[in-house]
Design brief:
about 130 residues, single chain, mainly alpha
């Protein structure tokens, strides 16, 4: 790289292409975030901080009774939602802004997971 060249001039970015995520990728992301991510982060937060901090009263009840019931419920709900979304693909793709809706729900799920992890970390630091 010559002295007068900038970093942008030295990099060949013509081969890099950003593609919009496909429908199946978005459904899979939703299932992973809301299924696995939310269940595991809820378990971590409930184990460290106690189930009383759970905002959802139904989930709090399941955590108090047996934590695996919460995992089973969340897994069943997200599996059902994923199958329905895959089966209704042609209907969903006709709705204006469907991709933005998916990204919004995935973003909200990510915020929920990060909040659960934060609660767990704060509880660990307080001990």
């Amino acid at each position: 790289m010559a002295e007068a060249e900038t970093i942008g001039d030295a990099l060949d970015l013509s081969e890099i292409r950003l593609e919009m995520p496909g429908y199946v990728e978005l459904v899979l992301s939703l299932v992973i975030i809301w299924g696995f991510g939310d269940a595991v982060s809820t378990l971590v937060a409930a184990t460290v901080a106690g189930p009383s901090l759970e905002a959802n009263p139904w989930i709090r009840l399941l955590l108090v009774h047996h934590p695996l019931l919460m995992v089973a419920l969340k897994g069943a709900v997200v599996l059902y939602a994923g199958v329905v979304l895959l089966e209704c693909r042609s209907v969903v793709e006709r709705v204006p802004g469907w991709r933005a809706w998916f990204l919004g729900v995935i973003g909200l799920g990510t915020a929920v997971v990060l909040t659960n992890v934060y609660v767990g970390l704060v509880a660990v630091a307080a001990v």
